[in-house]
Amino acid sequence: MIHYSTLIAIICVAATTYLTRILGYLLLKNRTLSTRSQRILQVIPGCVLISVIAPYFVTDNPANLIAMIITLLAATYFSLLPTVIISIGATGLLRYFI
Predict the structure, then answer these.
(1) Residue-wise pLDDT tens digits, 42-90
(2) Which of 1, 4, 24, 79 is nearest to 46 (CA)?
(3) Nearest-5° angle of CA 46, CA 41, CA 27?
(4) Is the pTM of this model over 0.70?
(5) 10 Å Cβ neighbour count for 68?
(6) Per-residue pLDDT tens over the stretch 7-33
(7) ∠78-7-95 over CA atoms, to 5°?
(8) Which of 46, 50, 92 is nearest to 67 (CA)?
(9) 46 and 80 in contact (C-beta within 8 Å)?
(10) DSSP letters of 11-65?
(11) Does the CA dihedral 71-77-83-89 come out positive or negative?
(12) Sign of the dihedral through C-alpha 63, 68, 71, 73
């Protein structure tokens, strides 16, 4: 069974990711953005994801450390959605078996 705090964290991360996208659109829809500004807005969801997983960099749980390595490797080859799917799957399997 999923922990209540984990469920709340997932919901908050999803809401934050969605809100950063939609609020950025609503606030900036009538403006022309520079290329640099567009790139910054595109990476905000990834920054939110990193802020959630960053505390696990100091964990002593080997399953979490291995899952982070897998996530970092996936992030170098795939876009955000496949990376998230791979990292969730890897973390779940590693926590179950280790």
Answers:
(1) 888 788 778 887 887 778 889 988 998 999 999 999 998 999 999 999 9
(2) 79
(3) 130
(4) no
(5) 18
(6) 999 999 999 989 987 987 888 888 888
(7) 60
(8) 92
(9) yes
(10) HHHHHHHHHHHHHHHHHHTTSPPPHHHHHHHHHHHHHHHHHHHGGGGG---HHHH
(11) negative
(12) negative
- C-alpha distances out from residue 25 to 15, 22, 32, 58, 66, Å: 15, 5, 11, 35, 36
**Going by C-beta distance under 8 Å and a sequence separation of 6 or more, which residues neighbour residue 63?**
91, 94, 95, 97, 98
Inter-axis angle of helices 80-97 and 62-77, nearest 10: 160
Residue type, 53: I
User: Angle CA(71)–CA(85)–CA(2) in degrees, nearest 5?
Assistant: 100
Q: How far is CA 75 from CA 5, 21, 46, in A?
A: 26, 20, 10
